[in-house]
Amino acid sequence: MVLVALLTGGLFLPQWAMFIVTIAFAKALVALGLMILLRAGLISFGQALYYCLGAYAAGALGRFLGIADIFVQMLAGAAAAGIAAFILGFLLAKYRGIFFGLLSLALSMILYGLLVKNETLGSTDGFNILPSTLFGTRPGPAWVRYAVLASAAVVSLGLALVVHRYLRTPLGRLAPAIKDNEIRVEYMGASARYAVHVIYVVAAVLAGVGGALAATTVGHIDPDMAFWTTSGEFIFITILAGTGSVVAPFAGALIYEIIHTTAYDLSPNTWQLSLGAALLIIIVFLPQGLWSLVSKMSTRYARHP
Asked: What beta strand segments (E) does 74-157 contain?
């Protein structure tokens, strides 16, 4: 129902609104991966690593191979992030708590440093990517935004459904158990390290798709996509949204982008202060995230239908 509403309602949205919604989809995919990690008691301060890898993989396709298809770019972003996470996961799956978070942050900053020094990829300025195409055809100027929005909606909601199904599998249900008592998980015969490794790769693939989608939407990529402040933004969105449902990251990312855009429009010089104050109020009164409102209403309705 949400997908149908987006595909039909998107036709009537102005260009700037399409841009905001598409960027919200990109960031929500990263937050969706962080939500899975949080369910296992893990906080990654370096998820921008895979967000940036996905963006540069999408950009490199156009820059070096001339491929600008939206779906191919997102597939390349997912593959690049997934391969990197699979390799690095052997190391990170051994750590928990603050060590996991700081190690992920260090890896992200290593990528940032490498990109800053790489002149082939534009160094600190980054580079523009080719205009998007859809199944080999390039939409007209008036339809480009809508084509990207529709592609983002289909892929994002499809991935949300896959994650929803994954969380109901035995492996997906291990995450809260690992958070509560990892030793008992091992006594039950399950491998906590293997489960963490899988969760880490899934979260990275989601971030890679989000990075490729963001690159396609903006049309430009730069090393700041791997900077620590970008990772902090994703964590903020995840905490703001809550971890009660796969829908929560999408709602949280959209609200975050609306507040961000409004704050910048009203106070260009102090928008960070306005944004921080608005989000601080939400977190103070809703410490479990925005999705806790839905849970409370559902509980109240169950008691008094």
From this structure: 127-128
Contact 102, 45 (CB under 8 A): yes
Query: What are 133's strand-pairing partners?
Result: 69
Which tokens sit at 214?
């963001």
| Number of domains, the chain | 1
Place of tokens 């509980």: 299
Amino acid making up residue 120: T
Q: Percentage of the chain with pLDDT > 90?
A: 33
CATH number at residue 134: 1.10.3470
**Would the pLDDT of 301 be above 70?**
no
Place of tokens 């529709």: 150
Max Cα-Cα span within the chain: 63
Residues 169-179 have a mean pLDDT of 88
Whole-prediction pTM: 0.89
20: left (phi over 0), alpha (psi -120 to 50) or beta: alpha
Contact 234, 60 (CB under 8 A): no
- Tell me which DSSP letter residue 221 carries: E
128 bridge partner residues: 220
What string of H, E and C letters represents the secondary structure of 152-181? Answer: HHHHHHHHHHHHHHHCCCHHHHHHHHHHHC
What does the mean pLDDT of the chain come to?
Answer: 87
Which domain does 177 fall in, by range?
2-303
Q: What is the pLDDT of residues 52-81, one digit of tens each?
A: 999 999 988 888 888 888 899 999 999 999
